[in-house]
Structure formats: structure tokens, C-alpha cells
Amino acid sequence: MRIKWIELNGFKSFPERTKIELNEGITCFVGPNGAGKSNIIDAFRWVLGEHNPRILRGEKMEEVIFQGTFSKKEKGLAEVTLLLNIKKESTNGNDPETQEIEVKRRLYRTGESYFSINGKQSRLKDIKEIFISEGVDIRTYSIIDQIKINEILFKPSQRKSLLEECAGISLYKLKKTESETKLQSAKENLQRIEDILNELKKQYSLLERQAKKADKYRKVMEELKDAELKVSKTEILNLLGELQKLKNEIENLENKQSKLKEENGKIIEKINHQKKYIAEIEVTIQERDNQIKQGELEKAKIEKELALLAQEELNKKEQIKKLDEENTSIHDEIEKAQQELKNCHIQSQEIEEFIDLIQKEIISEEENLLTLQKEIVEIEKLIEKERKTLFSLTTELANKRNNYQSIKKSLEQVQNRISNIEVRKKEIYQKIRQMETEVKNREIKIKSLKEDYQEEIYKINILKQQLSEAEGLFESQSQILLEKKKIEAIINGKIEALSSEIWEENSNHKLFFECIDVSPEVEELVEIFLDDKLKASIIDKIEEIERVQHKKFFFLKNNDQTTAESPNLPGIKKIKDFLQIKDSEISGEIFENLFIVNSLKEALEKRRAYPQCSFITTKGEVIFSDGFIKVGRPTDLLKKKRMLEDLKAEKNKLTDDIKSIEEEINRIRAKREELKKEIEEKRAYITQLNKEIFQTEERYKTFLKDIEQTKQRLKYMENEEKTIRDEINQNTKLKEEVYVEIQNLSLCIEELEAKIEELKNEQKEILNKNDIHKEAVSNKKIELSTLKEKLNSKKIEIKRLNEHLKTISIKKLKNEEEIEQNKKRINQIEYEKAERIKNLENLNLEINSLKEQRESLLEKLQNEKSVLTELEKSYQRLNEELQSITALLGEKKTIEGEGKIKLENIWNEIYNLYGVDIIKEEFETVQEIEQLKIRITQLKNQLRDIGPVDVDILREYEEVRERYEFLLNQQEDIKTSIKELEEAIRKINSLTRRKLKETFDLLKDKFNNTFQELFGGGKAEIILTDEINILDSEIDIFVQPPGKKSNSINLLSGGEKTLAAIAFVFACLSIRPSPICIFDEIDAPLDDPNILRFRKLIKDLSSKTQFLIITHNKLMMECADYIYGITMQEEGVSTVISLGLKEAEVYA
């Protein structure tokens, strides 16, 4: 197989249709980071069926669709197409036939996705079968990236996948998985069919017995129907005559009632008119009251305003008096401020004259300071010169001393080195003896470890035999448990179905039927009597009804009832004798007066004698104590409840059996896990023994090399000791010469220090004189500063006084203006007071007039109310007469309603039983109706003896028989299918086990050879953790590069790990080459020499495998037959260009 081209459209960073031609040999993809090279690899993964978005570097699958950029809109779909060229072997000896297959995958942004082969929509399974049959699998070595490199080294499952692909059993594994799925499904179907057959067999036997009763039942029903229709027609005709007589009486009463209502209407009209007139007078009185109240309020308001105006006038006069007093005070303050301003100007002039005198004295003192400063500078220059000379001598002395100490220290170190060499020589002699002893011990240990290895192999075989026995026992017990759980599931289904029928809704209250136990023989009678009351909610108080408003009936606990004493009827059974109340808070009085009789006629006779009792016939007809008759069919609620209790008891017994079996299974499982754990421990111990044997042998060889190297090191140390002793003699002589030079330098330094001290004393005397002059200048400056501050304060005071004079003058003017305004307001207040006094007098006259009108209206209102009282008495008299007629009319209508209800009950009963309109249809009537009713009772007793029979039972019986035979055939077919699937799985296991073993043996040698070729030596090995059970065994890997002792993968460098994984991949490729192999930057950790070896392996296999390589390495590009450059000329949009080698180096 070869891929001719791949086409991307809207996939990730390829918005436009991009077609990449792929030739045989090696094709490289180069380009900067982020340009979209890895998106091409993702496209291969995606079209080959990858469904995990994380492996495609996303969170959800829709992210593979181009998301859009600033210049390009997002795409609505992603599409990748591959064109495959597959060569098929010819059957007639001619050249192989070539077949081209186009594989396409498309995903819409709505989430809709599909695959197609040659333009026809296909399943993912068909796509996978094509590629797996040709040796291409995205989970193995067809696509290798840096993540898979690490997985190969550190995940045994990944190595096992590569081995399976190398052995060519991936297609077999796929078929085995499908067969196991089908097998499981077939077993489940078989179990379901067997369960259905068991149920059908019971139903089949039952229907066969019921069919025999059907014919007898039909004949009795026909006679019963004819008798009941005659009786019902006769009763209905009698009822219709009685109802017509009642109708005439009701019409006469209704006419008389109509006349009385008309007279009543006239009186009511007069009463309403009188009430309306009285209401109008009352409204007028209310209006007068409101007007009087409004006048009083207006009067109070005017009086309040007069009081406020008088108070305001008084306040204004007080304010004028205060402002006059304030102006007098301001005048005195202005005169005082003017005098203070004059004094401040005189004091400022005196301070300025004294400041000029002090400034002249300061200048004289500063000239004297300048002269002393020049003398100090000259002396400091002389001191600095002498100090530099002293510093150079001191530095030289320090260097000599440091040199002396360095030589001294060097001598001490050399002496220590000689001591250390002597100690090390002794240690080396001791170490050589120890290493020779260790070599002998290693030889003994290697022999012991090999013996332990053989012993542990024998123990594992014994444990595996025990595990196999435990597995068999576990399977048998699990099968028994499965059968029990299936029976339990059937019972649970029946319980759930019955529960859902009995309890139609969730409720926090207990239902009435849960509180009673009824004998099976009267279950149907109790159900007919109580009907919906059986599902009444039991409540403690009536307030709970509001929270459960959807219920029809409720039963109140502890409801004390006073019931008449139950009569004793000989030969008649009580319902209460056949049931038991389970809840002590529920009274059984509702069943106290309920009796069972044989027929409706007997019930009617007994009711006339005992009207407080209710009676129910054996056919389910109920006559209540209030006269109502009820005919109905039982709901089977109590029967279902009894069946539910039986099923729960059966379930509890089954649960106990399951629990004991599960305990046994858990015990077996614990033993099995213990054996597995012990086997795993033994396997781990064997692996450890292998490693330990390998490491011990390597250590043994290392010890031999170390002994030889240690002897060479001893000889080198003896030569080093001789060299060090010569060095000690030279350093001793140099130490004496440096000591003499140090003594001479110390004398020169002491002379210079004495001279510097004399210059410092002279400098000190001059500084004392300088300090005296400085102090005098400082005092004068302080005094000058004080005077300047005084002068500033005086100027500030003058400014403040000017501003104060200005402020109080302005205030005086404002006070004078305010006095004038207050005088004007007082004149205005006098005018307003006169106006309000005049208004108050007019308002008093108006209020007195309104009070006189109100008294007149009250007298008129009293007269009209007397007239209304007389009219209401006339209305009361007529109303009493009307009520008596209405009561009589109600009684007649009640009797008519009862007759209609009885008529309707007869009609409903006949219509429900036979679907006949007894009123419209013509039937024969009879004179001796009682004899016919006795015959009806006899026929019903015959029907009850026969029991309930479904008239369609024969048809149902035939349908069940046909279905039973069909399921038997299906059962045989599934059993045959299960045997075929189990045989197919056994053959696949046998074939894959053989292929895996052959391929593993071949891969073991290939891996070691490829490793040595890439590393230039060393060794590599792969080991099965369980050689007996190779299908479930994992693969351990051990590698040892040349020159290294450790065989741990974790201690390898990044490049060595990559080379080791590449060696494993190419070992697999050399056994079973893949048609295409894609490498995504796996050469990144490799240096140039390793790149060259890696490149050689690719070249050797490129004739059989089509290589697609993403790389940044120039050496890898040199081996490419074709190079494509991937760039992003526009941000977010990848472009593919064909390149030469030099251009590729630029893009890399």
C-alpha cells in the first residue's frame, strides 16, 4: 500500500483546499515552529479514525475546524481525503493488480460527521479494517512522535501493542473483540429467551385449561342477557310513568312560585327607591358637615396667621435695636485699630537701622576667617604628601607579609599532602585486598542466585495450578449467582409492576387498604364496597387535606363515631368477620353494618327491615344505608396487594440465598486475589533475580578492572611524593629572604608616622583660632536673623490692621442697610393684619348659615326612614309564603331526581354489560318480574361457579402457542451461534499465541542488533513477564549503552532514551514493515553522529516503507527524496510549498 496524496480542506490552519502529493521514499516537512507542520500529522490521525480530541491537541472535536482569522471567516466543515494505492496479489500468476481507494472524513460544525470510501458513506469499522489489513495503525508505529517515544520506554502496554502489530495480529484482535461482544450479546439473548419461555410455558398451560370453560360461559351469558333485558325494560317503563306524574305536580308549584316572586319584585323596587332617596338626603347632610368643618379650619388658619404676623413684627423691632448697638461698638473698634497701625510703622523704622549695623560687623569677621582657611589648606597638602608615601610603604609591607604567609601555608599544605599520600597508600593496599575478597564472594553469589531463580520458577508453576482450580470454582459459583440474580430481577420487576399499579403516586400518607387484611374469599366484595376509598390517605388532622388536594378520599384517625348497635341477622355473614384492622387508631365501624346476601332482591327486603345497614350481593351489587345502589367490578387492588406480599416473601428468601453465594464467591475471590498477588510477587522476585544476576556479573567484571586500575594509581602516588619533597626545600629558602625585607620596611614606616604627627599638631592650633572667629560670625548672624523676623512680624501686623479696618467698615454699612429693610417690613405687617381680621368676620357669618340648613335636613331624613320600615315588613310576609312553596317544590324534585338516577343506573348497567340502549330498543316486557329475577340470580350463580372467563381466550391461546414454538427455534439457533463463536475465539487465541511467540523471539535478536548499530556497541534485551500466558504478558526492556554499567532506562540521557526507543521501532519495522511511517520531530534530542546513524536506518527501509518526517535538522533534510515547506505567510493560515535542499535549510 502507498498513499498517493492527502488533501486538507478547512482542517485546523488549512482553510482552503490543500493537496499534498506523497511519493515513494522519504518526504520531509520543514518550517518554523507554529507554522502548521504537526497539523498535517493530526490530519493523518483524524482521517484514520482518531476520536479522542486530546490526542489531536484540542478539548473537543469541533476545534479541528478552521476557526477563522482577522481576514478569513471561520469554516463550517473540516475535511481530509487520502488516496491509497493498494497492490493485490494476482490469482492467475499475472502481475499484481493495483486498486485505488479514496478515504474521506468530514465533520460539520453542527457536530454531524461521516466517513466515506470511494464516495460512498461507510462505517469507521470498514476504514479500520482496510488500514489494519495493510499494517497501518495509528496506535502503533505508523505515527511516532516524542510522546510515543516516552511511552515505548516507560509503558509496557505500548511495547506490547508494537509487538502485536509486528506480529500482524491486530486484525485478529479486532475480530476477537467483535466475536466476544457478539458472544456476550448472544448469551444475554439466550438468557432472555429462556426466561420468556419459562413464563410462556406457565401461561400456555393456564390458557389451555381456561379455553375449556369458554363455551359453557358463553351459553349461560346469552340466557342471562335475555332475562336481564326483559326485567330492565319492564322496570324502566314503570319508572317513566311515575316520573311523568311528578313532572305535572312540579309545574303547578312552579307557576304559583312565579306569581309570588313577581309581587315580591314590585315591593323590592319600592324599597330600593326609598333607600336611594334616603341616601341622597344623607349625602346632602354630609356635604353640609364638610362645609362647616372646612369653614372652621379656614377660621383657625386665619387666627394662626394673625398670631404669626404679630410675632414677626415684635422680632423685627428687636433686631433693629441689636443692629444699632453693634454699629456703636464697631465705631470704637475702628479708632483703636488706627492708633495700633501708627505705632507699628514707628517700630519698623527702628529695626531696619539696627540691621544695617550688624551686617557690617559680619563682613569684617568673614575676612579674618578666609586668611586662616588658606593656612589650613597648606598644612593639609603637606600631610597628604607624607600619607601617600606612608601608604605605598605600608602596601609593600603587607604584600611581603602576605607572601611570607603564603609560603608558610604552602609548606604546611605540602606537608599535609605527603601525610595524605602515605595514608592513601595504606588505604589502597587495604582496598586491593578487599576487592580480591569481593571478587570471590561475587562468584559464590552468582551461583546462589541462579539456583534461587530455578526454585522460584517451580513455585510459580504450582501457584498457577492452584489459581486455575480457584478460577474454575469461581466460574461455577458465579454462574449459580447469575441465575439467582436473574430470578431476583424477574421478581423485582413483578414487584415494581404491582407496586406501580397499587401505588399510582408518591404520598407521605399511609393508604387505607394498607391498614386492613382481607380474606381472599371477600376481597372482591370489599373492593366493590369501598371502591376509591381503599386508596384514601390516612391523616391525623383535617388540616393535612389542604396539602394533598389532588386526593378524592381521606380517612381521619381516632375519629370517634357513634354508630347504632349492629343487628344480629341469622344465616347472613358480616364482612367484618372476614377482615382484620392492623392499625389500632383506625376504627372498624365502617364495616360494622355491612352484610353479605345472595341476591339484590334479598338485599332490598333486608334493607326495608334494617334501614341502618348496607348489603352487598355475592355478584358485587351494593345497597347502601342511604338508599343508593352501586353495581361495578372489582379493581383487584387487594388481590394485587396479597400477590405483592407473597412476592416480597419469595424475594427475601432469594436474597438470603444470594447473600450466602456472594459470601462464598468473595471467599473464592479473596483466595484467587491472594494467589494472583503471590504469583505477581514471585514474578517480580524472578525479574529482580534476573536483574540481580545481570548486575552481579557486571560488577564482578568491574571489580577485576578496578583492581588493575588501583595498582596503577599506587605507582603514580609514589612518584608524586618524591616531587613534593623537592618543592619543600625550595620554599624554605625563599621564606628566610622575605622575612629580612619585612624588618627594613617596618623602620621606614615608623619615621614617617612621627613626622605626620607634628604637622597635625600645628594644624590643630590654627583650627582653634578659626573656630573662635566662626563662633563670632555665627552669633552676629543669629542676631541679624532675629531682627529680620521682628521686622517681618511688624509688617504682617500692619497688613492685618489695614484688612481689619476694611472688614469692620463694610460690616457697619451692611447693618445700616438691614435696619432700613426691617422698618419697611414692619409697615407691611400692619397692613396684612387688618386684611385678615376683616376675612375672619365674614367666615363666622357663613358657618352659622350652614348649621341651620343641616338641622332641617336631619328632620326630613327621619320621616323617610319610617316609610322604608313599613315597606320591609310587607316584603318579609310575602317572602315567608314563597319559601314554603319552594321547600315543597324541592321535595318533589328530589323524588324526581332519585327516579332519574335509578333509571340511569338501570340504563348504565345494561349498556355497560351488553352495549344496548334499553330505552330506545324494543324488548318484550313481563308480568311476573320476580320469577325472572330469581332465574337471573341462578344464572349469575352458575357464572360465579364457572369463574371469570375471557371470551377471546381461544384466540389468545393460539397466539401463545405459536410464539412458544417460535422462541424454541430461536433458542436452538442462538445455542448453535454461541458454540461457533467460542470455537472462533479459541482458534484466534491459538493463532495469535503462536504468532506472538515467533515474532517475540525474532524481535529480541533484531532489537539487540539495531541497538548496537545505533549506539556503536552495548546490548539491549526484552523479557516477557509471563512466558506461559503470552497473550496477557507485559514486556520489560533492559538496555546498556557502551561504557556504562547501569541498565536502568531512567539513568539514560534524553538522546539515549530516544535512540533506544527508535531501535525498538526499527526492529519492529525490519520484521513487518509498515506501508507508511510518520515521524514528528523525534530527532530533536539527537546530536549529529546519532542523526547520521538514524538516517542510515531510514534509508535502508525506505524501499519498503513510505517515510513522512517533520524535522528541523539539516542532516535529516539531506537524506530526503522530497521536501515540503510549511509557512504562515498570513497569520493563522498555513501554506505548503515544494522546496529544494538550500531553501529547506532557510525554513528550518
UniProtKB/TrEMBL annotation:
Record-annotated RecF/RecN/SMC N-terminal domain positions: 3-138, 754-1135
Record-level GO BP terms: chromosome condensation; chromosome segregation; DNA replication; sister chromatid cohesion
Coiled-coil regions listed in the entry: 176-466, 637-888, 954-998
Keywords from the UniProt entry: ATP-binding, Coiled coil, Cytoplasm, DNA condensation, DNA-binding, Nucleotide-binding
Subcellular location, record wording: Cytoplasm
Keyword DNA-binding: yes
Residues that bind ATP: P32, N33, G34, A35, G36, K37, S38, N39
Molecular-function annotations in GO: ATP binding; ATP hydrolysis activity; DNA binding
Record-level GO cellular component terms: chromosome; cytoplasm
Annotated HAMAP family: Smc_prok (MF_01894)
Recorded domain comment: Contains large globular domains required for ATP hydrolysis at each terminus and a third globular domain forming a flexible hinge near the middle of the molecule. These domains are separated by coiled-coil structures.
Known role: Required for chromosome condensation and partitioning.
Quaternary data: Homodimer.
Record-stated family: Belongs to the SMC family.
UniProt protein name: Chromosome partition protein Smc
